[in-house]
Structure formats: structure tokens, C-alpha cells
């Protein structure tokens, strides 16, 4: 059976399953649409939350960044998993006891202000739209490889599928679809890792293979895999795989922003509103941690395996001898090669600059005239000028900045890894199905938050309080379509090279807006509406402005104190805390009924009177 047939079989079967579940569980009331009637079991909710959480950034991009960055990529592993501990301990049990549909519902009631609710809606839109862009990009990458279509068409197809089952089923449909998607994801992630671990290290447990010996070459069986990978990197002029290049401060800020952002993500928090009780919330959170650990503990191994395969498969071979997988991805514009030295061989290198101009080339080559027939994807390349491939936004800089003749988009490594290792075609198809499931599951959860923010928190609570259930669900579906169209546009024209990097911005926005405000709303009786509103505006304003300025407005990245846009959310969070506390000190305290409500939220059920 051909690879295309395997792909169609796996993708078709999983899509059919998702659509069937959505049709059978379609929502008829607002409670079903928003929180699945609050009747989901902890086990099922844990699996659904894990699927919601493990987005395209986790499944597609995280291992790619681990492969490209090595040690530095540990910020994603530490931040995203550590954040779930904060979420479980400090946030979700209390919000579940509050017993509302959304995070902004809590903000509006706790800070006794529709303006606070409105600011919460604005923050939710910024966070979720930034996040969903990465998911749409991931869908486009997968469909581009699966069906040989342009990325833009893949994005549109994925958007249509998400709208069907998210718009039709709401939280009820999404929950049980995500249970199925988690099962697809976990098999798609771990099975190839087991195969490749055996091929490279003769150990069937990927985590043990990562710290085991590299045995593929036979004679080097005594060399640990990470030592072999360090040697491959340094021999080619790259940094050692196990050494970091980020400053300590930037590494700390990024990790903290990811951690606190996790605890403030509205689409993750709302998942815990679907279970029956606070006790069920804690059980559900434990199941979620267990389910995500299966994937997160496998990602470092996949990253190291793919980096090893990439270097050994590509570097130094002639273009005619290049593996089929490389030419397959090259045809889709996600891999590129420029034969700068005219030797017909692919040079994958991290050594210094040699080709930024014709004059510079001549100076470094004894005054000889620069060649006029360089090859870029079998097309002429002259003095570093060429047409950019689809999806390779940094291609020109990569190919003209140094000795490197080979460029690949990092987001493809998980998808290309089984092909690099020569695994069976059905394994490749399974990985593709898992990539699609990862992107669609999170996109659906984000879309639900976006639609409920407009229909419930903005229209129902502020603009038209007399709206009935039918009108509210209809407005949610219209909002879903509108936001999905915008997300599809940015999925086609992404603001960042990596899916995971785009998603990291969303975590920074959540860390600087929702996390401090929710935390203070639960544990401080003195924080008032003026403080909460000022804190949210200051925190997200600083973070968003910093990201826009350094990501889109300047070329020279002279970051403030060396903190990158990925880590500025932590600074924004501190600003939020400080502004909220300061403004609350000089403005009237909250009314007594709000103080009583805070006491009630923090007191266990049937515990008697709260103590002071």
C-alpha cells in the first residue's frame, strides 16, 4: 500500500470518528455548550484536558525546538509541566467552587464590575487568538505534507473541520472528541519514538535510549547518545547540544512566564468546570498530569533522535544521493539547499559568515569573481538573492548568513522523523493523524473560549441581558466562525518562525493578565475592582507592546535586560501585581458581600465557619 493510501486511511478514519462524536453529542442548551452540563467524569476530563493542553506546539513544534536548541528548549518542558502544578493547587479548585461558566464570569462578579468583565474579554481574545494562530499553522503544515497542497489550503481545510465539531457540539462535543484525540496523539507520539530508540540505541524505552549508548554505527557502541550528538554538533560548528545559549535571566523569565501562563490559560481552566464537584476537579487534575507526562517525558528523546538522524542523513551527501524524505519536504518549500561552493554536496554547518555579498565572496576567495550559477532548489541563486520557499520565512537570512547550505523549518521534524529513520508507512501515517489531532483539539478548546467570551460574557452579561438560550448559542457559533477566519489568516501568515514560539507569546499574555488577577481575587480580600482593572491593563499592555515592538518593529534585538519577548510576560505579571496592589491601597475596599464571597470560595464545603 502506498504512503498516500495509508495517510488517507488514518486521517479519514480519525476525522470520521471526530465528526460522529460531535454529531452524537451536539449541544442544545447553553450549559451543554459551555461546560458539558458539568457531568464529565474525572478520568474522561483528565484525558480531554491533556488533549486540549497538548497542542500543535507540544506535538509538532516542541520536539523540533528541542532538536534545534538542545538544552535551551528545556524551558518549555519545565514551564508547561510546572504550570499545571500551580493550576491544580492555586486556581481550579476555587474557581470550580465559584460555579460559573467562564474565567471572565469570575472576574466580573469578584470585582463587581462589568468593565472588569470587559477587560477580561479583551484579554481572553488576545490570549486565545495568539494561541490559535499556532494551531492553524500546525494544521496547515500537516495537510501540506499529507496531500501535497499549499499550506494555506491545509489551514482552510483544518479550520472548516474545527468549526464543524466545535461549533456544533460546544463543550459537550469537544470533550468526548478530545478523549478520542488524546488516544490518537499518545500512540502517534510514542510508537515512532520506541522504533527509533531501538534503531539508534537498541533500547525500546525512549527515555532510557536518550541517556543510553549510540549503537547505530556498531563500532561506536560505547559512546553515549548525547555525547555522540554533542560531537556531531561541534564538528559542524554548532553549539554543543547539551549547552545553553540563553542568559540565566532570560531562561528564568521564559520558564516562569510559561509556568504562570499555564495557570492562567482560560481554555484550560474552563475544562475543570465540566466535572461535578471540587473533589472531582482534584482527581481530574491528577489524571491530566499523568496523561501529559507520557508525551512530555518522550519529547526530549524525540528531539535528540531527530537531530541525530538529520545530521547523519543529510550532511556531506550529494544532492543526487539525498534521501527521499528531504526532497519530499523540499518540494513543499519547508526544506531548502543552496550549493554555495559548487561541489554538489549538502553542507549543513554552523560556521562563520562567507557569503553576504559578492565583494565579500571575492575577498575570501583570492579575488575571484563570485559564481553566477549557484543552485537553490534547482533554481539559479545569485549573490544570495532568491525567492523564498513557502513557509521558510527566515530562509534568506539562513542561507546567506554563514557556511550553511541547508535550511529546514523546525516545525517539520516530528513529522519527518519517521521518514528519516525509514519506519513503516503506517507509522508515518499514524504520526500525521496525531499531528492533526493535536492541532484540532486545542484549536477547538480555544475557539470555545473565544465564542463564549463574546456570546456569554460580552453580549449576555453586558450588552443584551435579555438574550435567551437559543440566541446565545447562535451568537456563540457566529463568533466561532469570525474568530476562526482571523486565526486562519494568521495561520497562513504566521508572525513567528516556530509554532511553539507563537504559542509562547500567548502564555506571556496569560501570565501578565489573568494569572495575577485570579490569584489575588481568590486569596486577597483587599484587592478591589480599580486595582484589578488597572493591574490587568498594565500587565497585558506592557507584555503586548514589548512583543509587538521587538517581534515586528525593529530588526536589532537589544532586549531590555536581555529578556526576550517570550519571557517578558513574567515582568508583566510582576507589574500587574504591583499596580493592582498599589491602586487598591489608595481606593475604597470591596463591599462586604464581595469579602464574604471570597471567604466562601476559600472555605471547603461543610467545613463550618471560616476562621481568620
CATH class of the largest domain, anyone? Mainly Alpha
Number of domains: 3
Straight-line distance between termini? 70 Å
Overall number of strands:
4
Proper CATH architecture of the largest domain? Up-down Bundle
Mean pLDDT: 79
Report what the structure shows:
67% of the residues lie in helices and 2% in strands. The chain has 612 residues and is mainly α. The chain has three domains: 3-68 and 77-93 and 114-308 and 419-512, Sodium/glucose cotransporter (Up-down Bundle), CATH 1.20.1730; 309-418, no CATH class; 513-603, no CATH class. Strands 1-4 form a two-stranded antiparallel sheet. The chain has a two-stranded antiparallel sheet with strand order 2-3. A hairpin with a 2-residue loop joins strand 2 and strand 3. It is globular, with a radius of gyration of 25 Å. Mean pLDDT is 79; it is low at 352-365, 368-402 and 607-612.
Q: Keywords, please?
A:
25 helices, 612 residues, two-stranded antiparallel sheet, single chain, mainly alpha, Sodium/glucose cotransporter, 3 domains
Give a brief outline of the structure.
With 612 residues, this protein is mainly α. It has 25 helices and four strands.
Structural topology:
Elements: H1 3-24, H2 30-35, H3 42-53, H4 56-69, H5 74-98, H6 103-110, H7 114-147, H8 151-201, H9 206-210, H10 225-235, H11 248-263, H12 266-269, H13 278-296, H14 299-314, H15 324-330, E1 335-337, H16 358-364, E2 374-376, E3 379-381, H17 395-401, E4 406-408, H18 413-420, H19 425-463, H20 469-492, H21 499-512, H22 514-523, H23 529-553, H24 568-585, H25 592-602
Antiparallel strand pairs: 1-4, 2-3
Helix pairs in contact: 1-8, 1-19, 3-8, 3-13, 4-7, 4-14, 4-19, 4-21, 5-11, 5-13, 6-7, 7-8, 7-19, 7-20, 7-21, 7-23, 8-14, 8-19, 8-20, 10-14, 11-21, 11-24, 14-18, 18-19, 19-20, 21-23, 21-24, 22-24, 23-24
